[in-house]
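Reopening this one. Same input as before:
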Amino acid sequence: QVQLVESGGGLVQPGGSLRLSCAASGSIFSFNAMGWYRQGPGKEREWVALITSGSSPTYADSVKGRFTISRDSASNTLYLQMNSLKPGDTAVYYCNAFPPLGHWGQGTQVTVSS
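Same output, byte for byte:
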């Protein structure tokens, strides 16, 4: 059974920070690159960041230098540290394998607004 549970979202002012977490079932986490994705209002879901099983990260240009992805294999947890947040980062954030599997979690809402 695939399980992906995202948490850590909230309302933050521009320039603020949030740290997202994703608890993933071991069957996904142990053998796959993992990624963060987001879907903003009226937009399609887009890829944000990925981390390989060897912990090598890659970022979308829109978040490079502001977001940091990491993983804890001991707890099957994926993280996304988000700094210098902008209103354009407002979205529901999801984690999944990279490339994504068909099953998605409920996501966590991030709202950047003053």
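So the earlier flakiness isn't reproducible anymore. For the record, Residues 87 and 112 are 5 Å apart (CA to CA).
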